[in-house]
Specification:
Blueprint lengths: L5 H21 L33 E5 L4 E3 L2 H4 L1 E3 L7 E5 L2 E5 L11 E5 L4 E3 L10 E5 L7 E9 L10 E5 L6 H4 L4 E4 L5 E7 L2 E8 L15 E3 L4 E3 L5 E7 L8 E8 L2 E6 L8 E3 L5 E7 L2 E7 L6 E5 L2 E5 L4 H7 L37 E4 L6 E4 L4 E4 L4 E5 L2 E2 L3 E5 L6 E6 L6 E6 L4 E3 L9 E6 L6 E9 L6 E8 L2 E9 L4 E10 L4 E6 L21 E5 L8 E7 L5 E6 L1
Parallel strand pairs: 9-16, 24-33, 34-40
Antiparallel strand pairs: 1-5, 2-7, 3-6, 4-5, 6-8, 9-12, 10-11, 10-13, 13-14, 13-15, 17-18, 18-21, 19-22, 20-21, 22-23, 25-30, 26-32, 27-28, 27-31, 29-30, 31-33, 34-37, 35-36, 35-38, 38-39, 40-41
Length: about 575
């Protein structure tokens, strides 16, 4: 081959060009850069089954889109109202969403139907959902055009609630919400808002349900509910805007759980507060002591008989197996309930479902705690077991290294494990308390063998803040109570009967921290918030919650809480 021949150079150049082109094609990739696609798939209205059709008599609907799509969570996202006897079949073919009405379904005459797709239809690549997609048709001569809207909030917190089903019924009996599906319904979005369109004029029963099982019926106390006391009119001249307050009904009172795995204690948990539950034993030599807290009833017992026995708590009977008292007393040790022993011998951790109160045969007590103690309140001492006797001659209370004797100790009438130490606290001082061995004797006749210690730090007035709270738009003659909450702790509480539409409350000695103001309309004057009852047509008590900015030390805050949907006005001053 002649490497200098002209044809050789021509052929070689041509080969290089072709190779370059082929390599270029092989390395092609998707272009980078440019704006991200945020547009949801759009309906091709000319190619699809016509929307807003009257005298509709089809069984199949085609919705064709301008790009490739996916279907997601169809069972929850796609809803039709009024509901059909069975769910329609919703499927995907290429760029088409196909809706097939159930075989044998007879549509109501002169009725407007709406199929809402929620977030079910999304584009293939970016997942943009067409949340406004609706298909509307009527079996009559016209499309109903009225609508209602509004919001659903938690009855206590006031926070919006998502995925709540708002339902409207043309049958108005109370039982209908458990027996039939609604005539119209819609779902709330993340902001708790809902809109139901294409309704016909009329008066409807309106409820909102946290429909966990998605069957469009109320399951009772297991699903939260909100309702309107009167029928809701849907008129030509007015677009309704409704506010629902969602609540959980009080469950039927019953014993929910029981635990008797340790000697000396039976823990009973109820579906509600066990205020009226009385206890007794079938054994004559049994000593019993009860302690009630929220939904829990603790029954402390002591007996010299090593036999199984029955605890009768109201209508319930609990069999308690024989447990060894001597072994328990060997391990029983008295110390503060908020302390955890360190080192070896802390005792075994309770298994799931067992009582959390463990006995500790050995171990080292932690260093004494220092408690920030309010000036006007007694110190609270909570122990592991109920206190029967306290011997103050074995108590040493000191301030500035000097023994302080001007104090009183008394039991808490509601909690047998708690003692209250009433002292005229001196601001700016730190008090030390020592409980020498034998200072406390518990329910089982055992005295403390350790020296129990605690410190109480009393802030000065300059370290504390104040709040002048004005409550407005309240109802004269109505009972209310206000709580100032610091996390889960209640810093202060006031109960009052409103003598006008405004009330001023002054709080002093508050910690310099951010507090939450809670105003509750106490309609039954029981000192706590009460939920509603659907069948009794009882709405939950109204609650108004607002957060304050952090209080400042040696500073008073003036705030106005308006008892209606709205805000809290504040201004500070010395």
């Amino acid at each position: 081959m002649n490497l200098y021949h002209p044809d050789f150079f021509r052929n070689t150049a041509l080969a290089l060009v072709v190779t370059s082109i082929l390599l270029s094609c092989a390395r092609q990739s998707a272009p980078t850069g440019g704006p991200k696609d945020v547009t949801p798939p759009q309906l091709d209205t000319l190619a699809s089954t016509p929307n807003y059709t009257t005298r509709f008599d089809r069984k199949h609907i085609d919705l064709i889109f301008d790009e490739w799509i996916t279907l997601d969570d169809v069972s929850n996202q796609v809803v039709i109202s009024p509901p059909l006897s069975k769910r329609p079949r919703v499927s995907l073919k290429n760029k088409t969403v196909q809706v097939d009405l159930p075989e044998g379904e007879v549509l109501r005459p002169n009725t407007t139907y709406t199929i809402q797709f929620g977030r079910a239809v999304k584009d293939l690549h970016e997942g943009n959902a067409n949340e406004k997609l609706r298909f509307v048709f009527s079996t009559g001569d016209f499309i109903d055009s009225l609508s209602v809207g509004g919001n659903v909030t938690d009855a206590y917190t006031g926070e919006p609630v998502e995925k709540v089903t708002v339902m409207f019924y043309d049958i108005v009996t109370d039982s209908i919400i458990r027996q039939e599906r609604p005539y119209y319904f819609g779902k709330t979005d993340k902001s708790g808002q809902f809109t139901i369109e294409n309704m016909k004029a009329g008066r409807y029963k309106a409820v909102a349900i946290e429909d966990a099982d998605q069957n469009l019926k109320w399951a009772g106390e297991s699903e939260r509910i909100a309702f309107f006391d009167t029928l809701v009119p849907v008129k030509d001249s007015q677009r309704q805007v409704l506010a629902f307050r969602l609540f959980g009904e009080h469950k039927a009172f019953r014993l929910f759980d029981k635990n008797a795995e340790r000697y000396g204690q039976v823990k009973l948990t109820y579906t509600d507060t066990p205020d009226s539950v009385q206890v007794k034993s079938d054994q004559p030599n049994m000593r019993l002591l009860t302690e009630k807290s929220l939904d829990t009833l603790l029954v402390w017992y002591d007996t010299s008989d090593s036999v199984p026995w029955q605890l009768i708590a109201g209508k319930d009977t609990v069999l308690v197996r024989a447990l060894n008292r001597s072994d328990f007393l060997k391990k029983n040790r008295i110390f503060f309930a908020d302390e955890i022993l360190t080192g070896a011998g802390q005792g075994t951790r309770a298994r799931r479902g067992q009582a959390t109160e463990s006995v500790a045969p050995a171990g080292k007590l932690p260093p004494p705690k220092t408690i920030a103690q309010s000036q006007g309140k007694p110190a609270e001492l909570l122990f592991k077991t109920p206190v029967s006797i306290y011997d103050t001659s074995r108590w040493i209370l000191t301030v500035d290294s000097m023994r302080f004797t001007d104090y009183q100790v008394k039991p808490d009438t509601a909690l047998a494990r708690k003692l209250l130490v009433d002292v005229r606290w001196k601001p700016g001082k730190t008090y030390g308390l020592q409980l020498l061995p034998g200072a406390i004797t518990d329910f089982f006749g055992m005295g403390n063998t350790d020296t129990l210690q605690r410190f109480f730090s009393i802030p000065t007035d300059k370290q504390l803040g104040g709040l002048n709270l004005r409550v407005e738009s309240i109802t004269a003659g109505q009972h209310y109570f206000v709580q100032l909450q610091n996390g889960s702790a209640i810093e202060a509480e006031r109960h009052f009967l409103a003598d006008s539409t405004a009330q001023r409350l002054v709080f002093t000695g508050l910690p310099a921290t951010a507090l939450t103001v809670v105003l509750i309309e106490d309609t039954n004057v029981n000192g706590r918030w009460d939920s509603g009852d659907y069948y009794l047509h009882k709405q939950p008590e109204r609650v108004f919650i607002k957060k304050l900015e952090a209080l400042r030390a040696n500073w008073e805050v003036e705030a106005t809480l308006i008892a209606k949907a709205g805000g809290l006005e504040r201004k500070r001053g010395n």
